[in-house]
Design a protein that fits this description.
The protein has about 575 residues and is mainly beta. The chain is about 10% helix and about 45% strand. It contains 4 helices and 39 strands. β18 (about 240-245) and β19 (about 255) form a beta hairpin. The longest helix has 25 residues, at about 380-405. The chain starts with a helix and ends in a 24-residue tail after the last strand. The model is unreliable at about 1-20 and about 200-210 (pLDDT under 50).
């Protein structure tokens, strides 16, 4: 063998029951019935269904004692080509002193070099050893037969709880009255019922319920009713029927009944909710499975969101399970959101499906079991945080828009406008002089100065200065530009006596923008491009005073006129 016993034992934990890359045919298919002291054979045909040419080891497992010791050649080897089949035979020689009963053993089919993941394949078999019976019998020994007869290759099929009635025909060939008792040593007492009646006998008598008494040369019938209990596993059963003679207690009369309990595939499932709402912890469920049939079930469990929903992650423990007949199992299912930070604002119901698959292909009452979990919405205070964040975001956006929104160029502004003096005199021949200061002089188009009376009549003609080319020549001696325009002692034509109010008007350079956005900005900035004005207080020019006669009198009151002499 290529593998040592320890490595094979390790791989058996993951072994398949039957199948894999090989087709396997057993002969006989069920239990092997043999009498102590005789031999029997087990033939195994192996078909290579794969595309490799493996070297296959077939042997009786070392743990299968004493059957391995009975096997003449317990280890054999085959080389199979693609699509090729071959047959090997294990011969078992049963010692005469072997006690009657069932002896289980395991045949291992292993191809470690070519199929390490699919092998070994384990075949569970059983040998039914019948008690040794001497062949030399007298013609006067009693005999019995079973009706209907059963055969190893055609066992009688039975459902759980279905009775099978057999008639045991007993023939007393001796010359004495004898009593017979029927025994079933291989069956539990709840399996069978023995009825001793004389309705089917030919002259026999019943002695209570324990014995059948027959006269010499007469025949009788014992009714044997075999009823497999409801929890009987499926399979082939070979109980032994033994007839005891009161006159000859050392005489052993045996026969075998071949029964096949038909499989029943019944599986129930119940989903129990442990935690059905997702808050701070994940949801948890338990799926309880109960095998109410009579065959072992190998199941695979998978959970996924309904309608391909990928909101949650589903953890199943375990993902596969073997359940014995009448056994049960529990599967833990945990449901957790994949992105917990995406918790909904309102309560949401998430549906999921639990899918079962029978690894042996047996029928299931339903392959899909629905479930649902509730994902609680966010608490109310998180809404307040979101509202505050939204308000902050809107405020930030407004600030950024204000910060980066195109602004109109700053228009000129009149910082100061005043006369050099509030009082002038006409007789001095002086004109009114003005002082002003303007910001943003580079945005100036024109400066207009005019004088009006308090009643609004223009009494000083408007003077307009073009500022587009800088300080005009008329203002060159009076103005200078730094960051602002400063003009001092600018003369006007106001020389006539009267009250004046001077008005300074600064007109900005108009901005022209193309495009829809530019025109929109122009409309927004239009009010800021309007001319600005500022007036002075009343400036007065006093008229030249009119001459007045203050005193007119003679130098002396009396004068004397005399004629001078010639």
């Amino acid at each position: 063998m290529t593998d040592n016993p320890q490595s094979i034992a390790d791989r058996k934990e993951h072994a398949n029951a039957i199948g894999g890359p090989f087709g396997i045919i057993l002969n006989p298919l069920g239990d092997i019935a043999v009498t102590a002291g005789e031999s029997c054979d087990l033939s195994i045909t192996i078909i290579n269904d794969a595309d490799k040419t493996p070297l296959v080891n077939i042997f009786v497992d070392e743990t299968s004692q004493p059957v391995r010791d009975w096997c003449v050649i317990p280890e054999q080897r085959l080389a199979l080509g693609v699509g090729q089949s071959s047959e090997i035979t294990f011969q078992f020689e049963i010692p005469i002193e072997t006690a009657s009963g069932s002896y289980g053993f395991v045949v291992v089919i292993d191809a470690p070099d070519h199929y390490p993941e699919d092998t070994p394949i384990l075949l569970q078999q059983r040998i039914q050893v019948l008690p040794y019976v001497q062949e030399a019998r007298l013609a006067s020994d009693p005999t019995f037969t079973l009706q209907p007869p059963t055969r190893s290759d055609q066992p009688i099929p039975l459902q759980q709880g279905q009775p099978l009635e057999l008639a045991v025909l007993v023939d007393n060939r001796s010359d004495r009255v004898d009593r017979f008792r029927l025994l079933c040593p291989d069956l539990d007492r709840d399996w069978y019922q023995i009825i001793y009646e004389d309705d089917f006998s030919l002259g026999g008598l019943i002695m209570g319920e324990q014995y059948l008494e027959l006269n010499p040369g007469e025949q009788g019938v014992i009714r044997l009713i075999i009823t497999p209990p409801l929890n009987t596993p499926a399979g082939v059963y070979t109980p032994t029927v033994s007839l005891k003679s009161l006159n000859n207690p050392d005489l052993v009369l045996l026969d075998v009944v071949y029964l096949q309990i038909l499989p029943v595939y019944l599986l129930t499932a119940e989903l129990v909710t442990l935690v059905g709402r997702i808050r701070r912890q994940n949801a948890a469920f338990t799926l309880f499975l109960k095998n109410q049939g009579n065959t072992p079930r190998s199941l695979q469990i998978a959970v996924a969101g309904a309608d391909e929903d990928t909101t949650c992650r589903y953890t199943v423990e375990p993902e596969a399970m073997d359940i014995a007949p009448t056994g049960s199992g529990a599967i833990a299912i945990e449901v957790a959101p994949l992105k917990r930070w995406k918790r909904p604002f309102y309560t949401r119901v998430i549906d999921f499906n639990i899918r079962l698959r029978d690894l042996d292909g047996h029928a299931l009452p339903s392959e899909v079991f629905p479930g649902s979990v509730v994902w609680d919405g966010r608490p109310w205070w998180q809404f307040l945080i979101l509202v505050l964040l939204a308000i902050g975001a809107i405020g930030t956006l407004i600030f950024l828009i204000w910060l980066f929104f195109p602004r109109p160029p700053s228009p000129p502004e009149i910082l100061e406008f005043s006369p050099q003096s509030s009082f002038y005199e006409e007789e001095n021949g002086e004109a009114v002089r003005l002082n002003w200061q303007l910001s943003n002089p580079n945005r100036l188009k024109t400066i207009t100065v005019q004088g009006v009376s308090p009643q609004g009549l223009v009494i000083s003609r408007p003077v307009e200065y073009d500022m587009t080319q800088g300080i005009p020549e008329a203002l060159a001696d009076f103005c200078q530009i730094e960051t602002i325009l400063i003009c001092i002692n600018v003369p006007t034509d106001a020389r006539k006596p009267g009250d004046y109010i001077f008005k300074l008007t600064a007109a900005p350079i108009p901005q022209r923008r193309s495009g829809l956005f530019g025109r929109l900005l122009s409309r927004i900035w239009r009010t800021r491009r309007s001319p600005v004005s500022l007036e002075t207080n009343i400036v007065r020019i006093d008229a030249t005073p009119t001459p007045e006669v203050l005193d007119f009198s003679p130098t002396q009151p009396n004068y004397t006129f005399s004629l001078a002499p010639n």
